[in-house]
């Protein structure tokens, strides 16, 4: 039980990567604050985590006061707070031609400012426990795909924040801040997104090797397994680190011109 008795907030945990992380945390002995927008999905995850090990909060993470409400729910329900997983994110296609300032602000509010607000609200309690923050970013943080401009900008900003706070908060508060950058992950929403784009029901079973050398893309459970290390005490004093989790080197890997344009990463 690598997370025995720890109390962890996992945002965006009613589906996908967040759901996998929350379930793995409970399996490792933690108590979890589940969060998301989909109440029905959230209740299903709550049932899967046996109820007494988790509590559910449904709210748009970018709403004023949402961060404080999540933190207070954790402390009121479980008596403390050891860690925060900033996983909730808004993934939306956009390019320089389709991105206006209003749209960019919306993406930044959810993907960058909301994680900052949650870290700030949680900091007094994380300091008491000498706890940690794990931000879930994206390999798109380095430059991103042509049709993911706003999203990529938001994840790049998140990565800079992780490195900045990973230094300052560890020195000043003994709170570690690290980040995982997943590559392309087969979540429920990713399956649906590609179907909405006109692909076949089983599109993920036949992918170009340039995107999936292993013959498949990543599973949420594989990201969750990696998350446990950063949330557990075994990661020791390591802070301010960003780890890419993908099956090939992302930077500098240029697909051939005839490769499918199917890809959209986490």
TrEMBL record:
This is NAD(P)-dependent dehydrogenase, short-chain alcohol dehydrogenase family. PROSITE patterns: ADH_SHORT (PS00061). It comes from Parafilimonas terrae. InterPro entries: NAD(P)-bd_dom_sf, Sc_DH/Rdtase_CS, SDR_fam. It comes from the Bacteria. Belongs to the short-chain dehydrogenases/reductases (SDR) family.
């Amino acid at each position: 039980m690598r997370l025995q008795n720890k109390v962890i907030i996992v945002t965006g945990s009613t589906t996908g990567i967040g759901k996998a992380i929350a379930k793995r945390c409970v399996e490792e002995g933690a108590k979890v604050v589940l969060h998301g927008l989909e109440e029905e999905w959230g209740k299903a995850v709550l049932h899967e985590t046996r109820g007494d090990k988790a509590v559910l909060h449904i709210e748009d993470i970018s709403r004023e006061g949402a961060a404080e409400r999540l933190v207070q729910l954790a402390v009121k329900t479980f008596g403390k707070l050891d860690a925060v997983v900033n996983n909730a994110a808004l993934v939306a296609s956009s390019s320089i031609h389709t991105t206006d300032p209003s749209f960019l602000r919306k993406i930044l509010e959810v993907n960058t400012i909301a994680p900052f607000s949650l870290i700030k609200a949680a900091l007094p309690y994380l300091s008491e426990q000498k706890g940690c923050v794990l931000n879930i970013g994206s390999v798109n943080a380095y430059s991103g795909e042509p049709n993911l401009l706003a999203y990529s900008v938001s994840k790049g900003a998140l990565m800079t924040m992780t490195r900045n706070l990973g230094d300052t908060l560890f020195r000043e508060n003994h709170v570690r801040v690290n980040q995982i950058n997943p590559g392309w992950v087969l979540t429920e929403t990713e399956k649906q997104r590609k179907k909405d784009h006109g692909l076949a029901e089983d599109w993920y079973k036949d992918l170009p090797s340039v995107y999936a050398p292993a013959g498949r893309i990543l599973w949420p459970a594989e990201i969750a397994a990696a998350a446990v290390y950063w949330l557990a005490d075994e990661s020791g004093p390591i802070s301010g680190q960003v780890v890419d989790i993908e099956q090939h080197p992302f930077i500098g890997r240029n697909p051939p011109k005839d490769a499918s344009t199917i890809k959209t990463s986490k």
